[in-house]
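>> received
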Amino acid sequence: MSDYTVDDTVDITDVVCPVTFVKAKAALEELDDGQILAVVMNDGEPVQNVPRSIKEEGHQILKLNENDNGTYTLIVRKTGE
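>> returned
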């Protein structure tokens, strides 16, 4: 059981880097501080780059889960900028 509730989800499996991070960042900007975003993305560049970029923005990475269909779900807590 997780100790968080996802407030919003963004699916970036249909875009390529660097647009993946742009879409994830835009979704985070819509949330209030402390809210949780789930980012669904493909393996490869998105999994390597999106978590790193989000962390560099100052947000908290809670978890990265591999899904049954080959995608990943990144769980992020928005922190104050």
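>> Residues 43 and 71 are 6 Å apart (CA to CA).
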